[in-house]
Amino acid sequence: MGAKYQIAAVHAAPIYMDKEATTEKIIYLIEKAAQDSIDFLAFSEAFLPGYPYFVHIFAPVQLFQAVAAYGNESVTADGPEINRIRTACENHQVAISLGFSERISGGTALFNSQIFIDSRGSVLGVHRKLQPTLGERIVWAQGGGKSLRAFSSSDGYVIGGLLCSENSMNGARQALLEDGEQIHVGAWPALSAIVAHAETVDLQTEALTKGHAVGGQVFTIAVSDFVDDRCLDWITENLGHSDQLIAGGGWSAIVHPNATYLAGPHTGPTETFVQCEIDLSHISICKVLTDAVGHYKRPEVLRISR
């Protein structure tokens, strides 16, 4: 028998552009997860302090003040906000992955990051997005290969993750698999709330989620926030009205290594835990057919170097 865990994707909106209030909400959601007997909780891309949707709908020359404000609401990986979240994980015995806008200590450079914290409150590691996408490059720097890894958790599994379109980077996904990844967190913003992406992006997210689950023989979480009125109001007050971003959006689900849905998909502006039980013994069964890091690897032909 394999180890079994209750896992969940947090389909929710942050308290947009308010790091303190969003930290409080994260702690509340961790407490609620414990009440629901959830072992592992996944948050969306840049949940703290919220995803900078404005970079995709306004010209760069209009964004100086907004980007500066975003930097002020970003947090350091060892700062008080993350430390409070770590304490909540320890107190409630819930492990998490959290997308956050990381500001380097003593500086202003920002990274689009994903922190992994176990149920003891220990930081397993921080992944920095390798390649910010389109307008994100106005806000975030490129991450380095050192942070591209999966982490062995004291809770008994190997966890890894990628942010948004990183999930289309075949080399990055293979690198995590070669670290023994068993649970993968694909963290996303609510791209379907951006009018230009509305017709296709959820289909793309679904395809990438199922592709990694089947191709890597791993349980795969896709987790997104949604756009709420607070987010729209902040953008309107600071940059002006745009009809290119609407309320709602998002796509959250959990997929088995055989491509079936274990939970979700859930879309739209309703806050919920997309939750299920997983059994890690199913991974070895799926690897009988194809094993991305074993009998189906062909290392003499295809290699990853880091």
From TrEMBL:
Transmembrane segments: none annotated. The lineage of its organism: Eukaryota, Fungi, Dikarya, Ascomycota, Pezizomycotina. GO terms for molecular function: catalytic activity. Belongs to the carbon-nitrogen hydrolase superfamily. Nitrilase family. Residues 5-280 form the CN hydrolase domain. It comes from Penicillium polonicum. This is CN hydrolase domain-containing protein.
